[in-house]
TrEMBL record, chain A:
This is biotin carboxylase. The gene is accC_1. Residues 7-451 form the Biotin carboxylation domain. This protein is a component of the acetyl coenzyme A carboxylase complex; first, biotin carboxylase catalyzes the carboxylation of the carrier protein and then the transcarboxylase transfers the carboxyl group to form malonyl-CoA. It is an enzyme of class 6 (ligase). It holds the Pfam family CPSase_L_D2. It comes from Helicobacter gastrocanis. Keywords: ATP-binding, Ligase, Nucleotide-binding. Residues 127-322 form the ATP-grasp domain. InterPro entries: ACC_Biotin_Carboxylase, ATP-grasp, BC-like_N, Biotin_carboxylation_dom, Biotin_COase_C, CPAse_ATP-bd, PreATP-grasp_dom_sf, Rudment_hybrid_motif.
From TrEMBL, chain B:
This protein is a component of the acetyl coenzyme A carboxylase complex; first, biotin carboxylase catalyzes the carboxylation of the carrier protein and then the transcarboxylase transfers the carboxyl group to form malonyl-CoA. Keywords: Biotin, Fatty acid biosynthesis, Fatty acid metabolism, Lipid biosynthesis, Lipid metabolism. This is Biotin carboxyl carrier protein of acetyl-CoA carboxylase. Residues 1-77 form the Lipoyl-binding domain. It comes from Helicobacter gastrocanis. It comes from the Bacteria. Pfam families: Biotin_lipoyl (PF00364). Pathway: Lipid metabolism; fatty acid biosynthesis. Gene3D superfamilies: 2.40.50.100. PANTHER family: OXALOACETATE DECARBOXYLASE ALPHA CHAIN. The keyword Lipid biosynthesis applies.
Amino acid sequence: MAHTPRKIFKVLVANRGEIAVRIIQAAHELNMQAVAIYTDADAGNLACQLADESYRVGENLAYKSYLNIENVLKIAKEAKVDAIHPGYGFLSENAAFAKKVEEAGIIFVGPSSDTIATMGDKAKALEQAKKSQVPTMPSTPVLQDLKQALEQAEQIGYPLLIKAIAGGGGKGIRFVANEKALKEQFNVAIAEATSAFGNGGVYLEKYLENAKHIEVQVLGDGENVIHLYDRECSMQRRRQKVLEEAPSPSLDSQTREALCACALRMAQEVGYKGAGTLEFLYDSKSKGFYFLEMNTRIQVEHAITEMVTGVDLVRQMLRIADGEPLAYKQSDISLRGHSIEVRINAEDPQNNFFPSPGQITKLQCPTGSGIRLDSMLFSGRTIPPFYDSLVAKLIVYDQTRPFALSKLKRALGEFKIEGVKTTIGLFKKLIAHERVQAGDYSIHFLEDYIGGKYGV
Amino acid sequence: MHEVISPIPGTFYRKPNPDAAPFVEVGSQVQPDTTLCLVEVMKTFNEIKAEVAGKIVEIKAENEQFVNPGDVLFVVG
């Protein structure tokens, strides 16, 4: 046996899709058993096939199944698991869920419920950033009324964003170009936040015209914390990431070290445990970076960091949760080569990215050195209409960024998914664009590109 | 009578969110641009409009029911 678990002999994966598959595979490599959960639409999916046991968690709608804390805990007890890995999305950053898992005497694979409650709350995380002397976007406290909003806006300067404190995943954000727009949108934003998140708290934040989204991966065991460098995730549509690369092509080494040191300091000051990500906006003109928020979970794009650092993040999460100290020192971590991930979604780029659930009639996957496919696909499988449209992540690794792009082009050419529409074709065109080739794209690039600004 | 048909497969929601009141009830007066329901597919929410002016005569789908393209959702009279 290559590895003997200490406390976690059986782990429940409280998720679905490709990340459930990824976690089950990591658990098996550590000689842990894995338990999958599924809905009617997900019965027989790849996670269920690979897991040692699988249990029906509820009806198809997410709030009746994957988001239902009681149902998930009931299965955890029935299956007698030692730990629960929440993956990303669903309950992964739900402090109440983490607390109930802890109270049930089950190990939550991730930070403590207290850390999630602090760092998962945008306002509290920003306070912590300021305490840790990490630069933050000029912003206001939670606003009481329009009068206060107008006064504060005057101090920061337009353009601005109105942000909901309970928002996330790109939701609950409104752009205001000037005072008139703020007057028009302020109360609408509060009503929208109340309706969408059950919390009407909003604040204002400065808006950068050509911002890049750069994030830093951290890993801790509650005492020692290290960073695993940066990822650039500026390729976004409706504030959802679609392509990510590590390391960022935009940072010089001095800025990279400064950014990573800042992120690390903040994670160290909260005694972070598990895998986490600190997100920043970066202004390449001034080389300024500003902390946005922290994700207290594994992320979709974790694989590119794994490729360039050689650290298996999901394995490390499980080992840390199992009670092992962090297996790496900061000096063990260095960057090697370049990695790019594209998110393959069952969507139709020709029809405003309309979702395309349905049966996979044919599947041909790219292969070869430096190609990794994290996926839930197999031929004949039906992609259900109830959940996220992410069906696969194509990850490439090569010595340099130009070679990684060339490999991605080759891999996308080999990748065939029939039966549903996917975003493969979009990526083929996108990565040929000179701005992408040069690494010169901001968080607004993709929407401008789709809108025809670059002559497409 | 006008039948409002789902153009897409997805989950039928009568309310904008779980705590809100339904968009319309039987007897509600509607205009062509009145939103009658949402149909969600893969986290994309699509507003379905009445398309005609009139009164809601019948609501054919149940809240949170899965509907297919071509299913009748409402009858407007």
